[in-house]
Design a protein that fits this description.
Length: about 575
């Protein structure tokens, strides 16, 4: 049994207007007639068992006519609203006796068939208003003219329609399992895992099925068609016709009307090819769609913490490219772990530890009015990123290494939030001080070059001579030594480079000497020292500590030296 779906104008041509002809059941003559623009002035023909994509202008109804030629014919009609709720109804009018018998295979003019729509609207079989995918199914339908009328009252809208007289054997839509819900099996701050039961279509009918997962921050979707419309209507559907223009002439290659043989041995036009889901140019950051094959478990990543998301799964029939929606779900990702904010006290040094790639927040709220605020930062290991906000406004953003000093203009009752971001290499340790009295310098001033230089020609079997740079400020310098194993590990080397580990952490036996040194002339601010009492052919780690007036020390870069083995 063949079902013919005909899109006609709001009213058929009547009276003095030249009569049209209904498509004949002869395939070749049928295709020849639909190519005749004069024959089909404003119509679209969809054969039995195919899904079409259409477009509705707001408040402009569109009508389709199903001609069922024999009684007791199964009939299934499915309408899918894409981007707006639709009103649609299906009505039945009896066929005139002249055209209800066996077809002759010859085209019959409409005036001879007397198939004109009159004021009699027929018997209403089904009606629906909303944005759900709805179907009318009858196991035994009488012959007659079935009119499908669609209307969009909210806005111009896309839709899809499917009709078949063999719904049991076609089964173009994948069947849902007995439990069609999508479950959230695990939930984190930025990831979430979904699971669902597989469709029985693949196992029972042997049809290829894949699953598409949609993630949205707005709402759940009731059809894949609605997702595609949201992602980009211009790319997801056929181009929208301009008002007053018709669809003809038809391009049958585009709509896939070439006949093919099906398993039942009768000709059946191939399903219309679907346009791609969406173009990357039209992609929206708040909606994501990914097709994952036949897996029924999927982990969604790169989500935002403490954000509600909606998740939908669609089973897509690979043979027909038609889809069925599971019952979607929603979930809110977990909150970020709340950062503890350290309070800085005016003029007091605070020790800060930051995990690898981690962050720490510090707050400074001066009690008294102030003209300037000075932040002293001593990064013990690698460089860190420093951001300072004054009353919520970003006033400083820099990378800091070693000892740094930042001075900002003050404001009455201002509050400062400092964010420290750690290194990618490893954990970071810092000493931080905030002060509204910049004359008090807690850390010793250091030269730009904090290396220790060893003089190779002055090496002996029991001594080495080294030099380092000083500054114009008078500071106390303490020298320490320790015998080391040349094969020590990277962790040990990293601990040795900790500039915040002061002399108090060293053994008394490691101490070589302490002395005061400065020079008004920076060009001459160099001091040397010879370390004696060493063993021949041994390696020693040398450290120089500069000690500030407040007792806080800063270590120069460690230096490994080796005495001569033979003298």
């Amino acid at each position: 049994m063949r079902l013919l779906l005909v899109l006609v104008p709001v009213v058929f041509l009547v009276g003095g207007v030249r009569a049209q002809k209904l498509p004949t059941r002869d395939e070749e003559l049928f295709q020849m007639q639909v190519r005749d623009k004069a024959l089909f002035h404003d119509s679209s023909v969809v054969p039995d068992g195919a899904e079409i994509s259409g477009y509705l202008f707001r408040d402009t109804p569109k009508r389709y006519y199903f001609v069922v030629e024999e009684d007791n014919t199964p009939l299934s009609v499915t309408v899918t609203p894409c981007d707006a709720p639709l009103e649609w109804k299906l009505t039945l009018q009896e066929l005139p006796e002249e055209s209800s018998g066996e077809g002759s295979g010859q085209a019959e003019p409409l005036d001879q068939q007397k198939l004109q729509v009159t004021a009699d609207e027929g018997t209403e079989l089904f009606s629906y208003k909303g944005n759900d995918v709805e179907s009318y199914v009858s196991s035994s339908s009488p012959s007659g003219l079935y009119q499908l009328e669609l209307l969009s009252t909210e806005k111009d809208s896309h839709f899809q329609a499917y009709a078949s007289t063999t719904p049991e054997s076609d089964q173009p839509y994948p069947e849902l399992p007995y439990d069609p819900r999508v479950d959230v099996t695990s939930l984190g701050r930025t990831t979430l895992t979904l699971a669902w039961k597989p469709t029985p279509t693949a196992a029972q009918l042997g049809q290829p099925v894949q699953y598409c997962v949609v993630v949205s921050q707005e709402h759940n979707f009731k059809s894949l068609c609605a997702v595609e419309a949201k992602l980009g209507a211009d790319e997801a559907f056929m181009s929208v016709p301009k008002p007053g223009r018709d669809f003809s002439p038809f391009d049958f290659a585009h709509f896939g009307f070439a006949p093919e043989r099906n398993d039942l041995g009768r000709d059946r036009p191939a399903p219309a090819p679907r346009a791609p889901a969406y173009s990357p140019r039209a992609a929206r950051p708040d909606i994501r769609k990914v097709c994952i094959g036949n897996k029924n478990i999927f982990t969604v990543s790169e989500l935002k913490p403490d954000t509600q998301y909606y998740f939908d799964v669609f089973a897509v029939n690979g043979a027909t490219n038609m889809s069925t929606a599971y019952v979607g779900t929603f979930a809110r990702t977990k909150e970020e772990a709340k950062q503890k904010t350290l309070e800085l006290k005016d003029g007091k040094v605070t020790d800060v530890f930051i995990k690898r790639k981690g962050s720490k927040f510090l707050r400074f709220a001066p009690v008294s009015s102030h003209q300037k605020v000075t932040f002293y930062l001593h990064s013990c290991l690698d460089s860190v990123q420093v951001q300072v906000r004054r009353d919520g406004k970003l006033v400083l953003s820099q990378n800091a290494e070693g000892v740094r000093q930042f001075q900002l203009r003050g404001k009455p009752k201002a509050k400062y939030l400092i964010r420290l971001r750690g290194s990618r290499k490893g954990a970071s340790m810092l000493k931080v001080l905030a002060s509204t009295r910049p004359n008090k310098q807690p850390f010793p001033s250091l030269p730009e070059d904090t290396r220790i230089k060893a003089f190779d020609k002055l090496r002996t079997c029991s001594s080495v001579t080294v030099a380092w740079l000083g500054t114009q400020d008078r500071h106390k310098f303490c020298v320490y030594r320790r015998e080391v194993d040349p094969g020590q590990g990277e962790d040990q080397r990293r601990r040795e480079q900790n500039q915040c580990a002061g002399p108090q952490a060293r053994k008394k036996s490691d101490k070589v000497l302490c002395k005061y040194f400065h020079s008004p002339n920076l060009q001459k601010a160099v001091t040397t020292e010879t370390i004696r009492g060493l063993q021949p052919g041994k390696a020693y780690l040398l450290d120089v500590y500069a000690v500030g007036h407040g007792g806080h020390s800063v270590k120069y870069q460690s230096k490994v030296v080796k005495t001569r083995k033979f003298c």
